[in-house]
UniProtKB/TrEMBL annotation:
Alphabetically ordered keywords of this record: FAD, Flavoprotein, Oxidoreductase
Pfam family, one: FAD_binding_5
InterPro entries tied to this protein: CO_DH_flav_C, CO_DH_flav_C_dom_sf, Diverse_Substr_Oxidored, FAD-bd_PCMH, FAD-bd_PCMH-like_sf, FAD-bd_PCMH_sub1, FAD-bd_PCMH_sub2, Mopterin_DH_FAD-bd
Gene3D superfamilies recorded: 3.30.465.10, CO dehydrogenase flavoprotein, C-terminal domain, Uridine Diphospho-n-acetylenolpyruvylglucosamine Reductase, domain 2
Annotated protein name in UniProt: Xanthine dehydrogenase family protein subunit M
Residue ranges annotated for the FAD-binding PCMH-type domain, each copy included: 1-174
Keyword flag Nuclease: no
Membrane-spanning residues: none
Length: 293
């Protein structure tokens, strides 16, 4: 690994100026993906821009409006917060699946998103809860929904001089909850064969009034599957609704075949994971409704 220069900017403006002026830059947030890729020769950046010293970029803030995650906030700073886990159990489940305890102290949700792996656990979970990216660059500030952020394996929508600064997730209502499930051959420290995130809201009668369903490791990028959400909206998650959700998730998938599973297998299992995640999210929403009354 040979790097010509290592930058540690102290502000967003300084960071974007470096990215604009120098070609061949790679941003470092936690480094748990980047350093491995450099060692394996997958990436060979000439310059490293370490953003961890930018004020606020490692902050995690929960308010009545929602959760703001700084792009370089360590995963552990999220998973160790009971208040965040209570509000976003599915998202925290997904974040907690990134690597080992040691990795959790360095890796970040923002880095996991920017790395743009189709199998990243946090991405479908973020899509399910409606997360929005706060991006800053030479042309100003823009908001990008997570489902639009990654454009292909290892590729995202950031321009050369842009940075992901933070992620914002709206606070769920009393009758709302989320869940994330993945299938892997091993229970720990493995890459998802498929994953599914679901968030939903129940009205006072227990009918699904809103939903978001996302799948991962089943296409070049994680997908928001609107047809799967539509299959359960207006229902009480009876068997026919869950079957329709699973079928829609499978229909949206376009996975590859590799040593971890065939395309046909992934297509089948992603529907199963989406169905189970929907049921868990519904159970959690019902529990929240009961506690509120």
């Amino acid at each position: 690994m040979t790097v010509s220069r290592f930058y540690s900017p102290q502000s967003i403006a300084e960071a974007t100026a470096i990215l604009r002026q120098q070609s061949g830059c790679q941003v470092l947030a936690g480094g748990t993906d980047l350093l491995v890729q450099m060692r394996n020769g997958v990436k060979q950046p000439e310059y490293i821009v370490d953003i961890k010293e930018i004020p606020g970029i490692r902050d995690v803030t929960l308010t009545n409006q929602g959760l703001t995650l700084g792009a370089a906030a360590p995963a552990q700073s999220v998973t160790e917060r009971p208040d965040i886990a209570a509000a976003y159990p599915g998202l925290v489940e997904a974040i907690d699946m990134i690597g080992s305890t040691q990795i959790q102290g360095r890796c970040s949700v923002g880095g996991n998103l920017c790395n743009a792996s189709p199998a990243a656990d946090t991405v479908p979970a973020l899509i399910a809860v409606g997360a929005v990216c706060h991006v800053v660059g030479g042309e100003g500030v823009r908001q990008v929904r997570v489902e639009d952020f990654n454009t292909g394996p290892g590729e995202n929508c950031l321009k050369r001089d842009e940075l992901l600064i933070s992620l914002f997730i709206p606070r769920p209502g009393v009758g709302s909850a989320d869940a994330y499930l993945r299938f892997t051959p091993r229970t720990e420290m493995d890459i998802a064969v498929v994953g599914a995130g679901v968030s939903l809201s129940l009205d006072p009668m227990g009918t699904v009034s809103a939903a978001r369903v996302a799948i991962g490791a089943a296409a070049p990028t994680a997908l928001l599957v609107e047809e799967a959400a539509a299959a359960i909206i207006g229902t009480t998650l009876e068997e026919s609704a869950l079957a329709a959700l699973a079928a829609a998730a499978g229909a949206a998938a376009s996975p590859i075949s590799d040593k971890r599973g065939s395309a046909g297998y992934r297509t089948k299992v992603v529907g199963v994971m989406a169905r189970r995640a929907a049921q868990i999210a519904c159970d959690r929403a019902q529990q929240r409704q009961r506690r509120a009354h």
